[in-house]
């Protein structure tokens, strides 16, 4: 009888231990707090707007959710799939409304989505000495195509005939942290009657956990004309615990010769990002 009672007590104790362990360890999904995600989006947005991008990873909530998502990558894939920056319908509403654009302290245009995720454009033009040239005017996007994720609009520049340039069309995608950074680098020369693109590349392109840049390529579409064009194609993928996601993104840089007179030229550059 005593032996039977001892066995019963042992089983009951083990059951209580197991039960307490189960209740002490909430499911991974239960660790995701929608209000915290919203707050984190706002905190990340504020830091980027202030030009303090390097401080994003030090935020307590970023550290918390990086740990959660690294331990449960399927939840991160699910989180990415819900972001408005990857929703073409939501993006189309934003890119057609100039009043929805904001600008960082460094002058980069930002599209902020209703859920707090956002895209930052960096259109950087440099001469052959590597000195950055600021645009004289920016006409804005004015695009209403369904697949357009971002449009810098036409940015105008002036230089002397034979001017060499390097244009870096960079576009950053942000959620709780930066998910990807895409570059289309176009080098060329502006002459009196035409523009020559000498080379293109995607140098600087990166993606962060759990995504990767599966492929990237750039090419010259139109050259040695008053209107020239380059393009970059990017395939962002991720395969985690049998969960697969893939996003095809394209950047097009258009350059046009506006006028030439007295040894000087005026030209404009526009960068358009298209996605799923």
Automatic annotation (TrEMBL):
Signal peptide: 1-24
Keywords: Signal
Native species: Paenibacillus woosongensis
Name of the molecule in the record: Uncharacterized protein
């Amino acid at each position: 009888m005593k032996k039977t009672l001892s066995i019963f007590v042992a089983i009951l104790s083990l059951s209580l231990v197991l039960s307490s362990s189960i209740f002490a360890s909430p499911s991974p999904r239960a660790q995701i707090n929608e209000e915290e995600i919203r707050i984190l989006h706002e905190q990340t947005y504020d830091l980027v707007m202030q030009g303090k991008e390097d401080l994003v990873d030090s935020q307590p909530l970023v550290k918390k959710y990086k740990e959660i998502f690294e331990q449960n990558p399927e939840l991160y894939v699910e989180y990415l799939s819900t972001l408005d920056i990857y929703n073409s319908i939501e993006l189309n509403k934003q890119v057609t409304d100039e009043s929805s654009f904001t600008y960082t302290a460094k002058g980069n245009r930002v599209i902020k989505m209703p859920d707090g995720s956002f895209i930052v454009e960096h259109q950087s033009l440099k001469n052959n000495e590597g000195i950055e040239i600021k645009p004289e005017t920016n006409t804005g996007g004015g695009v209403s195509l369904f697949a357009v994720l971002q449009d810098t609009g036409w940015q105008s520049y002036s230089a002397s005939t034979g001017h060499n340039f390097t244009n870096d069309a960079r576009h950053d995608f942000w959620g709780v942290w930066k998910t990807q950074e895409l570059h289309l680098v176009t080098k060329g020369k502006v002459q009196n009657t035409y523009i020559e693109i000498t080379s293109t590349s995607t140098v600087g392109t990166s993606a962060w956990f759990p995504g990767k840049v599966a492929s990237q390529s750039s090419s010259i579409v139109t050259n040695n004309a008053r209107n020239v064009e380059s393009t970059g194609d990017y395939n962002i993928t991720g395969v985690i615990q049998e969960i697969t996601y893939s996003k095809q993104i394209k950047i097009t840089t258009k350059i046009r010769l506006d006028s030439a007179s007295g040894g000087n030229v005026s030209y404009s550059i526009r960068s358009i990002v298209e996605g799923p």
